[in-house]
């Protein structure tokens, strides 16, 4: 029997190790689950977690899926650091996609260099506008930003559904609920010919660098970190809580909006009833598993992307249910939270006190 | 708009409200003990799928509801273990539980899509059920509808008048003081969290066994989050939970009856109503910080560790 003992100060080593422990625990659980589903665990493990990354095409897909996760995750992490919880990134992503889609369809047939930048701008603004609602209601009326941002996700989904069933439906689309395919000038350039990964991935790397600079070298970043770690100290220092809320929501909203543009101007190429398989929610896991650090988010997004790609491969090759991806994503976050225990606590073997040694009595 | 239509509208309101009554009242108890469980949506989904699965396999709705109750407790046990024993952050853990629940329910329900069960039957009271107007409005619901309202009355009494109710409130207001006078803070919080999970599980199963007797991935469509908002609307008072839930039930039903009532609005906008209404009411309730601050359990969302 052992018991937990508080560490005198948080362990830096554990802070870095706990995401790895969590990933490892998730992989082990995955293997057990494969066994349970009647698969040969090592083979299933290989198909799920290794094989997708062994081909160039697979790596391209990995980066493609990681892009929206990085963009959303980096934005969310900035807010989470300040204890501002934007849970509605999927809605903001959807609004970004809608805004960019409207631009693309309005300028359909215009072959000009400025269409794509305009779409990116519209997407970022669309995401920001949607994120501004919970920020406004929180700062003005003290309304929970968690609940409001989440409710707005469903509203955004329904708005997109209305648009592709109605005003934005392709008139020549055989009545399918989807818009026209975007033209060449409204499609993001591919990074490598033959792969689907596009310029949005570069954008996500820029976002990582920008977020790193913001957190490390700006006063606003410092202010937000203090507010998250010690609200009392932030209050004493006169840091404005509403400013943090606004900044967190506008930044993460813009990033989520850009992620939406990356999807509709990238692999999807049009507006559809759904433009995200829950990237905005998976990004919550990405942010936490990445330790709310921009570089950590990048790595966590790659891991999460592997879960998506591996899930698809396992579905095709092993006939495993696709829902397994979501299961692994949730497990990963559970294990991380549990492993975080060791940042602040350590196991202390229970010493038998029945026959204390002399030296202990003397002490 | 004729009377029959109004009766049908009001009667289906009770059905739509019941999952919210169950999930919110369970969460209310957990929050009164100081624990904020944002995993409600995930628990409801797992409850919905296990309840449906058990009913498909056994043919018994009672066993289905019992399985959902057990599944809800199991889900909240994971949450309780992380938050109460391992002291993890309540917000992050709750979100993790929801994401896990979405994945787990889709995984468990993969073979159930397309199957149906006979829905929970309506009770029939001699004479009363046949009364005009009053009959269909009050005496033709299934047992869970009545039980959910009785539950809230019992909870109100429990929290206000019984020893365990007072202990739960004490633990939610001032866990350190409660611990100092010998109350088992962690055990009480475990009990409250497990109760909350059980109710959310049954609330989810009510959706898959009574409202729409089938399983669809993500079928709760945010009901868990609305239930969380309801606890805030109710300012942590059980009787307000029923009022709020029936109000929302009405708004939800409006989307099915809206076009029949002559509202020429695309269906997607009617479907937005429950979510928009949630936001609007949250604003109305929260804009006066006094109503919230006076009633919110003081230690809500804060972990407790005895030293």
**Helical amount among residues of chain B, as a percent range?**
over 70%
Strand order of the largest sheet of chain A: 1-2
According to CATH, what is the class of chain B?
Mainly Alpha
Number of domains of chain B: 1
GO molecular function (chain A): transmembrane transporter activity
Protein name (chain A): ABC transporter permease
Keywords (chain A): Cell membrane, Membrane, Transmembrane, Transmembrane helix
Organism (chain A): Pseudoduganella dura
Task: Describe what is shown at a glance.
Chain A is mainly alpha-helical. Chain A has helices at residues 12-36, 41-50, 56-81, 89-106, 115-141, 145-165, 200-217, 219-229, 231-236, 241-264, 279-289, 294-318, 324-339, 341-344, 358-362; strands at residues 2-6, 345-349. Chain A is 68% helix and 3% strand.
Describe the fold and architecture.
The complex is a heterodimer of chains A (363) and B (307). With 363 residues, chain A is mostly helical. Helices cover 68% and strands 3% of the residues of chain A. Chain A has a two-stranded antiparallel ribbon. In chain A, helix 4 packs across helix 11 (279-289), helix 7 (200-217) runs antiparallel to helix 12 and helix 11 (279-289) crosses helix 12 (294-318). Chain B has one domain (3-121, 128-295): ABC transporter involved in vitamin B12 uptake, BtuC (Orthogonal Bundle). By secondary structure, chain B is mainly α.
Features:
heterodimer; A: 363 residues; mainly alpha; ABC transporter involved in vitamin B12 uptake, BtuC; two-stranded antiparallel ribbon; 15 helices; 2 strands; globular; B: 307 residues; 71% helix
